[in-house]
Every structure is written in C-alpha cells, then in structure tokens.
Amino acid sequence: MFIFIEGIKLPVNPEEIKLEDKQGIETVAIIDTGNVPLVGNPELQSIEFESFIPSGRYDGNYQRNSRVSPESFVSSIRKFKTEGTPIQLMIGGAFGSAINGKFLVEQFDVSTKTGYENDLIYKIKFLQYRSHKPRKVTIKDKKALEATKKKPQAKATEERSPTTEKPAQKSHTVVRSLLKKSSN
User: Fold this and answer.
1) Looking at residue 163, what is its pLDDT?
2) DSSP designation for 165
3) What is the per-residue pLDDT for 143?
4) pTM score, two decimals?
5) Per-residue b/e over 91-112, b at no fewer than 16 CB within 10 Å?
6) Where is this region: Disordered (predicted)?
7) 3-state SS track over 58-108
8) Cβ-based burial of 13 (10 A; exposed 0-12, middle 13-18, buried ≥19)
9) Where do the H-state alpha helices sit in the chain?
C-alpha cells in the first residue's frame, strides 16, 4: 500500500485507515404505515488515519524513496488546511480499490509520545471535495420574465441637510387631577 498527499509520499503507512461512505437517507413517519426511508444523494466521503513521520534515518518498515521532513510535512498540510485548497489524495490497494480524488483537509492534529520523541505523530482527516458552480437558468415563461422587469422602482428620498441648531427646550406643567378618589 502507498499513500500520496498532493505528491508527498508518506514514509510510514498507517496501521488503520477509516473510510466513511454514507448514503443520504431521511426517515419519514407516515400515518398507518410507520417510518419509511427516503433515499437521497450520497454524502461526502471522509478518510481518516493516524501515523508518524520519522525525524531521522531509520531502518525498518518504511517506504523507500520517501524522505519527508516533519517540519515541511506540517507546514504543507497546515497550508492546505488553512487555504481550503483541494488536494489530490491517492491511496493504493486499500479497500479493494484505489482511492484517487480531490479532498479537503478537515482536521490535522500533531502530537508526541514516549518512544517517538523526535518523530512527528499526526492524525489527519480528509473530506471529499466536489466542485460547485452556479447554474445558468433560462426562463421559458415570458410573462413571468416581463413581470419581473416591470416592478416599480423605489423612489429616491431627498437628502436632508444636517442641522446645526440644537432643538428648543420644551417644558410642560402637570395639573393636579380634578377627579377625587371615592372612599367606600
């Protein structure tokens, strides 16, 4: 198995890769029938895994020809995440077929633990990217189009000149009530 993140070959494969692939299903309650599922569009895939980038040259089960420094890896992934840049993610041999598509970096966590003091331990989560463009709409009903064109324009209000005078002091006098309270 191999993993490329925007051309960066990961030197250490993760122990586990989690692929979440959901279908949009809404449950609706119908009288005298009960709950019924309504199948919608598929949701965006998410891929999540945890691994590490060795800080030095090690012997062991690492991918050949993949020299990535922890610092450059962190800066590249953070840049992709903060800029919201869709990246090319390629995972070969996993899940019975290869994954090769555009994804966004949804989460990127970095940590350290005993035994890996100089290495970069990371957890990363990707969310599938789908491009979206506004659709061009053509109106077939000419009457509706003309009705929108004939809307009355709002009248412009005259601008008021700013006043430099202070408002005049107003006073009022409270007159005692002529009604008397009745005592029962």
Assistant:
1) 73
2) S
3) 73
4) 0.63
5) beebeeeebebebbbeebebee
6) 138-184
7) CCCCCCCCCCCCHHHHHHHHHHHHHHCCCEEEEEECHHHCCEEEEEEEEEE
8) middle
9) 70-83, 142-149
CATH of 2-128, one of 2.60.90, 2.40.30, 2.40.10, 3.40.630: 2.40.30
Buried/exposed 123-150: b ≥16 CB within 10 Å, e otherwise: ebbbbbbeeeeeeeeeeeeeeeeeeeee
User: Is 88 in contact with 8 (CB distance < 8 Å)?
Assistant: no
Token pair belonging to 83: 């800029």
Tens-place pLDDT, residues 34-73:
999 999 888 899 999 999 888 765 555 555 555 778 888 8
- Exposed e or buried b for every residue in 47-83, given b needs 16+ CB within 10 A? bbbbbbbbeeeeeeeeeeeeebebeebeebbeebbee
158-170: pLDDT as tens digits: 777 777 777 777 7
Residue ranges of the chain with per-residue pLDDT less than 70: 56-66, 94-97, 144-145, 147-157, 175-184
